[in-house]
Write a structure and sequence with these properties.
- Helices cover 80% and strands 0% of the residues.
- The chain has 179 residues and is mainly alpha-helical.
- Helix 1 packs antiparallel against helix 2, helix 1 runs antiparallel to helix 7 and helix 2 packs across helix 5 (89-113).
- The mean pLDDT is 89.
- It is found in: Cell membrane.
- This is Methionine ABC transporter permease protein.
- Its main location: membrane.
- Residues 13-179 form the ABC transmembrane type-1 domain.
Amino acid sequence: MLSEMFDIFVQSFWEKLIMVGISGFIGAALGLPLGILLYLTGRNGILQNIAVNCVLGGVVNAVRSTPLIILLIAVIPFTRLVVGSSIGTAAAIVPLTIAAAPFIACLVATALREVDRGLIEAAQAMGATTSQIVFKVLLPKSLPGVSAGLTIIFVSLVGYSAMAGAIGGGLGDLGHPLR
């Protein structure tokens, strides 16, 4: 009995790690470029485009402010399209990723805004391209803020994954009353 309970706990723990790891990795892969684009197209950005920034910012803020349980239900058709099911660990990864990416984008854009504008102007004066400014000035100088943001996301994903247990998988599923 105790051995069986321990095995169930270990299985649920691994499912949680998988959900958090994959959704965090994919969320970062989507959120980092989105955050950079938000920063670049914002006011005083190198590629200032207020229309693009408002649309992207609106989508990011809409998804970011949607409660996870609503998001879990709202993306069921998309989840079925992507993983073939709306229940289980793989199905929980999809809404967790959708929740993580805009949050990461917002934190990345905030970290990039903390970079001294003088450094960017100096790089532009030396003839640096946009990609050089991003990869050789902005990202290295904002790395502490981006790292802190990613840490916050992974901690948040641990909590989110417990809610995602409502559709199956992880420790949230183990603690679900209907199990």
